[in-house]
């Protein structure tokens, strides 16, 4: 199976052939995937070198000139390093672009902390008007990249991962999918953590919702999963900073008695490079750790009432 990043390069290269408005801007990283497209469209595949602030600035300029720019590099270099340009050259100027990242939270441990960005979605939450897609499989990445590229002048962030679920699901770039139904709580699994969540909740009486578009947050789906007239235990499992979406869940359930547990990467820096599975376990995002934490959280109210 190809990776999300390989699928992104392949589908975007085809889109360059189909849509003369589309342009790809790179900052040295990822250029190999666009070699053929650059030969066909040298004026619309632009490599600015190792200049991430310029990457976003050029994207903003292309958008103001009527183009649909797709900007790509690692998440730490796409959202964190040029954040001022994301804020001003795109947001302040009301210029739309598609930001497609790779190696988000800990997908390349050998790169060290400079190549990790667990806080990218939380950082974009400080800005207005961003759509955020978090695919969990290459097929979903293709669907969401295509949707983002055709989204007019919107500001869209597509967060690709080196991790993947076993199978893709039919995603529409909007709402959450109901994967499993239960009555003891609701677990929202974001992108590539779905397989671990399904293994963790096997046999538990919980509803599992699958989210590949997290902004806008599908509060209506969460409310429907909770059900009318019921108190709610909600667990959010996100492949980035723990608690990133808890405020959105709280807002969606403002008039419903509820508790929310946010699981994801911790704030403490893991200073040993290790491997991806070791980082997953260290952050408590493996199936065994998730089961322990989800089961304890959803069982607590019943125990308290006993």
From TrEMBL:
Residues 2-168 form the Transketolase-like pyrimidine-binding domain. Transmembrane segments: none annotated. It comes from Streptomyces synnematoformans. Gene3D superfamilies: 3.40.50.920, 3.40.50.970. This is Transketolase. It comes from the Bacteria. CDD domains: TPP_PYR_DXS_TK_like. InterPro entries: PDH/Transketolase (IPR051157), THDP-binding (IPR029061), Transketo_C/PFOR_II (IPR009014), Transketolase-like_Pyr-bd (IPR005475).
């Amino acid at each position: 199976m190809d990776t999300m990043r390989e699928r992104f390069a392949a589908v975007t290269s085809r889109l360059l052939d189909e849509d003369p408005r589309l342009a790809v801007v790179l900052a040295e990283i990822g250029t190999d995937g666009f070699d053929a497209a650059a030969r066909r469209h040298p004026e619309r595949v632009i490599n600015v070198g190792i200049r991430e602030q310029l990457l976003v600035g050029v994207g903003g300029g292309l958008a103001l000139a009527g183009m649909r720019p797709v900007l790509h590099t690692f998440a730490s270099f796409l959202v964190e390093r040029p954040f001022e340009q994301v804020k001003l050259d795109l947001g302040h100027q009301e210029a739309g672009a598609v930001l497609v990242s790779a190696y988000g939270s800990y997908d390349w441990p050998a790169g060290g902390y400079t190549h990790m960005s667990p806080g990218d979605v939380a950082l974009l939450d400080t800005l207005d008007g961003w759509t955020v897609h978090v695919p969990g499989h290459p097929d979903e990445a293709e669907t969401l990249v295509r949707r983002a590229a055709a989204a007019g002048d919107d500001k869209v962030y597509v967060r690709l991962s080196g991790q993947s679920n076993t199978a893709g699901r039919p995603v529409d770039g909007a709402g959450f999918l109901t994967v499993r139904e239960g009555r003891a709580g609701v677990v929202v699994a974001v992108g590539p953590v779905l397989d671990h969540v399904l293994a963790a909740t096997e046999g538990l009486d919980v509803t599992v919702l699958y989210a590949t578009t997290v902004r806008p947050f599908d509060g209506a789906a969460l409310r429907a999963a909770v059900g009318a007239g019921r108190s709610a235990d909600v667990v959010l499992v996100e492949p980035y900073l723990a608690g990133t979406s808890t405020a959105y869940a709280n807002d969606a359930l403002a008039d419903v008695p509820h508790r929310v547990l946010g699981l994801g990467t911790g704030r403490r820096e893991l200073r040993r490079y290790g491997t991806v599975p070791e980082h997953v376990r260290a952050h408590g995002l493996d199936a065994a750790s998730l089961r322990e934490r989800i089961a304890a959280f959803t069982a607590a109210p019943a125990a308290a009432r006993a």
